[in-house]
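Page header: ASSEMBLY MODEL / two components / 333 residues total.
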Amino acid sequence: MHEAAIVESALELILTKAEEHHLTKIRRITAKVGELSGALPEAMQFVFQNASHGTIAEGSDFIIEQVEATASCGSCGISFPIRFYHPVCPSCGGLDNQVLTGYELYIDTMEGD
Amino acid sequence: MSSIKVVTNILKVNDELTQQNKKLMNEKGLYVINLMSSPGSGKTSILEKVIARLKDEVNIAVIEGDLYTTKDAERIEAHGVPVVQINTEGGCHLDGQMIRNALSHLNLDETNLLIIENVGNLICPASFELGEDLIITVLSTTEGNDKPQKYPRMFEKSGIIILNKVDLVPYTNFDKDEFHKDIREINPKAKVLETSCITGQGIDELCAWLKETISISNPV
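Prediction written out in full:
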């Protein structure tokens, strides 16, 4: 359950940003979470509802956008989705692949008053 | 209503602390290993073997991560090397703040090799960088050969992958060919070693490799 540590860090980041922008109430937060990040959106939601209690982020919409895991093939150059973490090129079978997306774990936007 | 583009890594605080730790460890000329695996795969046993072989040639210090006990730290301490225990009290991984605290208890000027034994867990520790130079992930044959596929992140980040308890292969359905094939797909650059702490298989090779890597990284 390292989502607890992740969401606590996220909340710290959000509250700092809110202070910088003189917000007194946070309405909406969007986060990008990659399929390979190791963080479960459901667990993050659960932790957020509890951790945000009593802060200006309480009751805000915490929207997690999952980012598909993709890689590009070093041999034939195509991009492809990674299924079950096997970055094997489906076109040429090449193993020399670079993961393009899937490790995202960041706060993208926030809205408030 | 204000709209703010944030685009900031959630683990920024850990990353910053880790960068500070890394700077300090580099300044002191430490080679740092983050040793990870599931519980019971043999991390501490391998560590004991390595310490026994290398402690006269390399100044080793150990940070032991554990939920509640000091059992592993006591085992390491018995070999006469400095060890700091971190009890996470339920936490499933070590992070930058914990390492910073632990470093303050070690004499870094008298250390060449710092080994951080992470909390036994194949998932969460892989998400938290500790400023290490090398990740060693241990898998034991009794866990099954499907684990790298099921928990790829840790294996993907490793410089060395150790398959431990190879003496038990005849008593399990562990498929070594499948294991090596999966590792080649997940992390073709990793060095893979087969070890047994009972027969001693692979320990010499591991120690020789570590010694060479440390001397290249920190020329005397």
